[in-house]
Design brief:
Acyl_CoA_acyltransferase, about 160 residues, 5 helices, alpha+beta, about 25% helix, GNAT superfamily N-acetyltransferase
């Protein structure tokens, strides 16, 4: 895994903090982004998202106590982790925050020694490849059941 060239201290000097403290999360910001701006969670019921947050390790990056970056990690903390719901609010893009986020996820003490990491992305392959992600090896072995939250005839790509 490649290390981000910007250190925690450099981000702190710019007023950013990163935390897994769920008390700091701004649920309305998270829900608004995932429900209205993301391509992967449109139509998610708020109760479902709240339960997902409660049962995941969540990472938030904050500036002046305002959430600007979010990610969830679904894991058994022994063998597997799935990184999901990653977003950087538009006003904070281009500062290297997504790299700092992924670096901190990989360094989290409960996520050491895992056998498999996974994620799904439509547009951030370059970011994740820097940290060792590749297309799925032997995709013929992977299966899924996909039931989007949409209540209309709209479909996801």
């Amino acid at each position: 895994m490649e290390k981000n060239s910007i250190t925690d201290a450099e981000f702190a000097s710019k007023g950013y903090i990163i935390s897994t403290d769920k008390q700091l999360l701004d649920f309305e910001v998270i829900y608004n982004f995932l429900n209205n701006e993301s391509y992967w969670s449109k139509g998610i019921p708020p109760e479902r998202l709240q339960r997902a947050i409660e049962n995941s390790i969540c990472f938030g990056i904050y500036k002046e106590s305002k959430l600007c970056v979010f990610a969830r990690v679904v894991t058994d903390m022994a063998t597997f982790a799935y990184i999901c719901d990653v977003f950087v609010l538009s006003n904070y893009r281009g500062e290297g925050l997504s790299k700092w986020l992924i670096q901190n996820i990989f360094e989290h003490p409960d996520l050491q020694g895992l056998r498999r990491w996974s994620l799904a992305t439509a547009d951030a392959h370059g970011l994740y490849e820097q940290y060792g992600f590749t297309v799925i090896n032997k995709p013929e072995r992977w299966m899924e059941i996909f039931t989007p939250y949409l209540t209309t005839t709209e479909t996801l790509n």
